[in-house]
Specification:
Layout lengths: L6 H4 L7 H7 L8 E5 L6 E7 L3 E2 L4 E2 L5 H4 L8 H6 L8 H6 L9 H4 L4 H4 L9 E2 L20
Parallel strand pairs: 2-5
Antiparallel strand pairs: 1-2, 3-4
Length: about 150
């Protein structure tokens, strides 16, 4: 029996294998939402408008392998970017690990069940619309507050 702490407690983001890194994603879909930034204050305002590539039922990218070609402004999340990006949700496992904090009980790596992120009300499942057919001018009509938002 392995008595070591789980990898996210004993490794830095930089030390993780690709499989470990990918498994940190809890599948909430919140990073795939369109956000508005106030030009004067740099404050981020969340919307309920999802990237066209987000499957709003599974909260996963429909074309993960090709996402950067399909969505040029999609962020390639790296350990350095995790530490720089201020808009990652406070519940984001990448952010939590970077800050030396533990994962939440509902995280699939802790619970063993990929549905717990949805059951806990953290994910965007059932609460978002696709950006298809919308213009940036429409975004202000779709501002929302998400769970545990700081």
């Amino acid at each position: 029996m392995d008595s070591q702490p789980p990898f996210w407690k004993r490794k830095t983001l930089e030390e993780m294998s690709e499989a470990e890194w990918e498994s940190l994603c809890d599948g909430c879909g919140r990073c795939c939402l369109n956000k508005l930034e106030d030009w004067d204050t740099a404050e981020i305002h969340w919307t309920n408008i999802a990237c066209a590539e987000l499957d709003c039922d599974t909260c996963r990218c429909r074309n993960y392998e090709y996402r950067f070609k399909l969505v040029p402004d999609c962020i390639d999340l790296t350990p350095a970017k995790v530490r720089e990006i201020g808009w990652l949700p406070p519940t984001c496992a990448y952010r939590l690990v970077a800050e030396g904090r533990d994962l939440h009980d509902w995280h699939p790596l802790v619970s063993g069940n990929p549905e717990t992120v949805h059951e806990a009300g953290i994910s965007v499942r059932g609460r978002v619309i696709s950006e298809e057919g919308l213009t940036v001018e429409d975004y202000e009509d779709h501002l929302v507050t998400w769970p545990d938002e700081e």
